Each structure stands twice: as structure tokens, then as C-alpha cells.
Amino acid sequence: MSTPNQPIKDVYDLHIGGEWVSSTDNERFDTVNPATEKPLAKVTAAKAADVDRAVQAARAAFPTWRDTSPDERGRIIYRIGQLVREHRDELALLESRDQGKPISQAESDIEGAARYFEYYAGAADKLEGTSVPVGPDQVDFTVREPYGVSAQITPWNFPANLFARGVAPALVAGNTTVVKPAEQTPLSSLRLVELCAEAGVPDGAINVITGFGDPAGEALSSHPDVDTITFTGSVTTGQTIMKQAADNITPVTLELGGKNPAIVFPDADLEQAADWITKAIFTNAGQVCSAADRVLVHKEIHDELVERLVDHASSYDVGPGSDDPDMGPLASEEQLGKVTQYIELGRKSNATIATGGNTLDREGYFVEPTVFTDVENNMRIAQEEIFGPVLTVIPFADKSEALELANDIDYGLVAGVFTSNVSRAHRFAQRLEAGNVYINKWFGDTNQTPFGGYKASGIGREKGLEAFDSYLQTKNIAVNLTDDSGGDLPGA
Ligand code: NAP
Questions:
Q1: Which of 187, 241, 317, 385 could be a cystine partner for 257, CB 3.0 to 4.6 Å?
Q2: pLDDT tens digits, residue range 301-332?
């Protein structure tokens, strides 16, 4: 295991074509430690011309990478996974300082990142097409081919993990990539690209451009030489990206937000449910797309569950990620402002704060784990993604009301049911409008399981083998076996 002693540089350039290069105008900005509010490093603000250089580097690297034998591609990608493991401590510390999360949660993210490279590496030489039985006069088969240049636009809540989630399958499928991490948390992507080069990824196959959504993200998603876009982030930015991609008919995979119901029935193990829900809303200070934001609880057990949730939440130890507390700060000043506004909105709409609700009187962007009761499903705190450690609890009278409330939301990322009744669990799994359903647990998705949203939560799937659908397009090849030069008509 590596020592976490790789120093953070004072200044970071862009990583294009295998080299560190400065931007066209040399503009830089600070990336800040959210636990101290102090700058960690200066990072380059890429402009449209820099994005163009990165896309051209990826384009130039594409034919060679595409034509590298699949087993060799797989070996290189597997080596990235090993290097990520070897540098786990260093990467986790870097992530914790840049993003704010407790060090043990950052370690888990890095383990997950290593697993993405390992998991997809093994698929490199198994991306097979099909043979189609069309009769004796024609041989017909499909091949799956990479798109070309894959743009990866990532958010600030799981920067290293999401770099791996997109880059690993994109590269394994034979694409080259341009990654734009969020402006708040660029450091782990800038380190990962170095490890990828050390593993043998050729120059230009992964490029990292740092900077802001406008202009860098916009230039990338509207670039005519980008062949496919994978975006993880908010619904509003996802909508903008679809519009930016439309002129070039660039396909998009969108992993967007969630406002996820956790439904608790009286026959559930309440202590276990409270444990799962607490982890599911306060991990990474609630900045998780699949957080359990909305508890729907049967009115018979409402008070008992709330008591347990409050006990858990109020015992949380909150502090700088480097001390490995239960919960770290929010990732940025902007996010702190957003979360405190929602807490204020909850108060004003007459919801009750059962615990928490305050910021900490210290440097850093800290807010207490917060539980709201007396919440109505039409309140904004019950409908909008707060993306902070704020749980809303809503009672229901019977199972049909539970299902109605669970689905009465624009989002559809994940949902969970806590019950000991197997048929009820399955009935809810069938009817919940969400891409992932957890029964008697939370965060049940792994690297191997497809993940993505129904409704406004997104388009397409990441993780698992389904992720390859975002990185491979199907070509059908028809070979005539007859001497016949005519006969077939379109649509026949
Ligand atoms: P965001 O504001 O939408 O930003 C995401 C990324 O898009 C950032 O890199 C951002 O750049 C970039 N961007 C902004 N405007 C752009 C534009 N016009 N064109 C192209 N790129 C642009 O999201 P966030 O606040 O970072 O992340 C939180 C959101 O991510 C939440 O809604 C959360 O639920 C969602 N999320 C979803 C999943 C999932 O798998 N479904 C996983 C994690 C997070 P800058 O930040 O540098 O400006």
C-alpha cells in the first residue's frame, strides 16, 4: 500500500496528448479545502480553444487505440486498477482534502475506482456481436464498434470514482476520452490521468481539461468531433447538455439527480432500517445522488422510527475529513448556501426540525445532520434534491398511499423498501418508478449492477455490462452468397 505522501502541486496545467500544457490564456482558479476554506492549489481554467486541442488529441489517438488488440487493451486497463490500489492512501487523502469527505469514505471510493478498471478490463476481449439467421442466401452478423471520442463530464461528489466509472468502460470499448471534472474537485482526476499513463495508456487516449461549465463544459458537449457524451450531474445541466449536443446529434448518457424514497413498514426491523437510512442520507454529507432523502413511514411506527433516526443523527461526529469523522463538511461554500436555504425553507413551510438544522460555528462548510418531520409531500423540501444531510419524514396510512407518495416525484433514480413481507417487497419493486430498488438495505448497486434513472433522473445506464451500450455502436454486416444482383428492396 502506498504512503499518502504525494505532495499537492501549487499549480496544475491541463493534461492533453500525454503532456501537461498551459491554457491559451493562462487563467487559473483556486481549488479549496472545504474543511478549512483555504486554497489547496491553482488549477487551469480551460477555454474553448483548449477543449478543441484536447478533442483533437483524443481524435488523433483513436485509430491506434481502437486497433490495439482487445487483450492488450484489457491488460493496460487492469494495470490502471492495480496502480489505483497501490496509490489508494494517496488518492483517498487527496480526494478527502479536495472534496471534504471522511478519509474512510474516500478510501471506499478509491477501492471502487480500482474495481471499475479491473471489472471492465476483463470484458475487453468479450465484447461480441451476434449472428443473425436470415436464410441460406446471406451471411448476416453484427459487430460492436467504439464511437470514437467520449466526453466525460463529472460532478464534485465522487470525482475519482466517477472518473473510473466512465473512463474504464469507454477505453475498454476502444474509445478515447476527454474528461472534464467539476471545478470544485479537479485534483483526483489530474492524478488519475498520470497513473493511467504509467499503466501504459497511450498519449491522447485520456485527456483531462479542468475549468468551468461555461466555457469548458459547454465547448466539450457542443464539439462536433465528440462522438458520445457521458454526463453525471444535475438535471438542469443535463437538459442544457442535451441541447448543446443536439446540433451534432451526439448521443448522451445522463446520470442525473434523485430524491429517493425509503419506505418503512411496521413489519420491518426498525433498528436495521434506521441504521441503513442514516447511512444512506448522511454519507458524504448527503451529497449522493442515491441518498435516501425521503423516508415514507407507516403512521403506526412513525414516532418510533423518528426517535431512532434522531438518536443516530444526533450522535454523529462531524469534522474535517482528514480526522475521519462520521460526516465531513459540504463540498463548497455554494453548496453550504444551498443547503441552509433549504433548511430555512423547511422551517418556513412549518415542517419541524427533529434534530440538527444548524451550521457549525467553525471554519469550513459544516452543517449538522438534520431530520425534518411534519413534512407534506408537496413541500419543496420533499420534492427537490437538497444534496445535503437533510432527511424529510412523511407518514402514510396504507400501502397504496405509500406507493403513490413514493412515485409522486419527478425523479426516479433509486427507491427502497423495508419490510419482512416478501410478496410486498416484490410488489413494490415491480411498481416503484426507479432505476434501482433496494430491499431491506441501501446502496445495493455495485460495479457489476446497472445503474441509472427513470423519469428525470437520466438516460442510459452506467455500471455493469450495460454501460457498454453507451460506448459501443452496433454495425450489421450482410454478405450476399448468391450470384443474384437484384431482388431485395428496402423494407422487405
Ligand atoms: P452540475 O452542476 O450539473 O455539474 C456537473 C458537471 O457539469 C460539472 O463538471 C460542471 O462544471 C459541468 N457543467 C456545468 N455547466 C455545463 C454546461 N453548460 N455544459 C457542460 N458541462 C457543464 O452538478 P454538480 O452540482 O457538480 O453535481 C451534483 C449533481 O450530480 C446532483 O444533482 C447529483 O444527484 C448528481 N449526481 C448523479 C449521479 C448519478 O449517477 N445519477 C452521481 C453523482 C452525482 P463546473 O462544475 O466545473 O462548472
A1: 385
A2: 999 999 999 999 999 999 999 999 999 999 99
